[in-house]
């Protein structure tokens, strides 16, 4: 009953339930994870920005991926590290909404950016002679602008609908803030929010997966039809890298969304999947693209050699 009509501006978060012996290992793991994410993504950003030979459509679209990863990880990790150390179990409502907004921007943005990258690879491999005339700088700017506008508007509407609802609870059901946990604080019908959320997920998944499937079927057909084995191998390697990143994000994201819809799901499993979505893709994306993309790997290695001399 104390929680039923509590509209305090300070929310009570779920605790990590760490023993005194587990605090330091958890703090070390979270801090190292965040530092690795920052380091790897900044290296990828600087490598693309500072090398004019990488100012090509493929890399300009790729540049948005580490930026998006930094948005998601920076929205979660500082607060999580602070909570591990201090165990305050509290967070201001406005800070919670901001954290949730940027976490959802990260999730939706990753799907949109990877879809745009698939389109770029489709044009490059299936229409190589028209690539330069299609993927002009103006067209790249339009694609990137469209991706971020769709992302920010769709997530903005999601949280606008949330903020319209009256709140009468302050006890969160999660260790960090997201839309489902904030909806659990509402004391009126959330039908419109649920319908919009499900519609947003359905449309984005249908468009993203449909476009990925369409482009990769054409890419595979083109690759196996070509007689040049080196061209085929390079194209397949590039596509395999992109597909690995996309499938990793999709599996973690969908498992997290489904876990909220199934009430019998363990809170520990839901917490693990949610944090995994914020840890693994931002950590692995720059490593995968840095190691698998020859041009980026070469530039990073050249920079390391220059700094070590």
Structure description:
- There is one protein chain.
- The protein has 309 residues and is mainly alpha-helical.
- It is built from 11 helices and 2 strands.
- The protein has helices at 20-50, 57-62, 64-86, 93-126, 131-134, 137-164, 179-183, 191-225, 229-261, 267-292, 294-308, and strands at residues 10-12, 90-92.
- A two-stranded antiparallel sheet has the order 1-2.
- Helix 3 packs across helix 10, helix 4 (93-126) packs antiparallel against helix 6 (137-164) and helix 6 (137-164) packs antiparallel against helix 8.
- The N and C termini lie far apart (67 Å).
- Residues 1-5 have low confidence and may be disordered.
Topology at a glance:
Blueprint: E1 10-12, H1 20-50, H2 57-62, H3 64-86, E2 90-92, H4 93-126, H5 131-134, H6 137-164, H7 179-183, H8 191-225, H9 229-261, H10 267-292, H11 294-308
Antiparallel strand pairs: 1-2
């Amino acid at each position: 009953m104390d929680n039923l009509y509590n509209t305090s501006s300070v929310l009570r978060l779920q605790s990590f339930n760490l023993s005194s012996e587990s605090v330091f290992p958890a703090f070390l793991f979270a801090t190292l994870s965040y530092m690795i994410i920052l380091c790897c993504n900044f290296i990828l950003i600087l490598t693309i920005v500072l090398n004019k030979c990488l100012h090509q459509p493929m890399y300009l679209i790729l540049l948005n991926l580490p930026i998006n990863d930094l948005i998601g990880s920076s929205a979660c990790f500082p607060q999580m590290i602070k909570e591990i150390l201090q165990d305050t179990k509290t967070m201001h409502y406005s800070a919670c909404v901001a954290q949730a907004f940027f976490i959802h921007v990260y999730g939706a943005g990753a799907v949109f950016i990877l879809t745009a990258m698939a389109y770029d690879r489709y044009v490059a491999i299936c229409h190589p002679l028209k690539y330069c005339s299609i993927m002009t700088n103006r067209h790249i700017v339009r694609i990137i602008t469209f991706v971020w506008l769709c992302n920010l508007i769709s997530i903005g509407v999601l949280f606008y609908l949330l903020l319209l609802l009256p709140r009468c609870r302050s006890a969160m059901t999660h260790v960090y803030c997201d839309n489902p946990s904030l909806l659990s604080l509402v004391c009126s019908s959330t039908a419109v929010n649920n319908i919009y959320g499900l519609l947003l997920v359905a449309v984005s998944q249908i468009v993203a997966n449909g476009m990925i499937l369409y482009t990769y079927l054409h890419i595979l057909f083109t690759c196996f039809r070509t007689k040049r084995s080196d061209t085929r191998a390079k194209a397949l390697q590039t596509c395999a890298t992109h597909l690995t990143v996309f499938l990793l994000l999709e599996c973690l994201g969908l498992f997290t969304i489904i876990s909220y819809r199934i009430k019998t799901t363990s809170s520990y499993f839901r917490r693990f999947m949610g944090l995994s979505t914020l840890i693994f893709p931002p950590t692995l994306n720059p490593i995968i693209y840095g190691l698998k993309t020859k041009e980026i790997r070469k530039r990073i290695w050249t920079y390391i050699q220059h700094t070590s001399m």
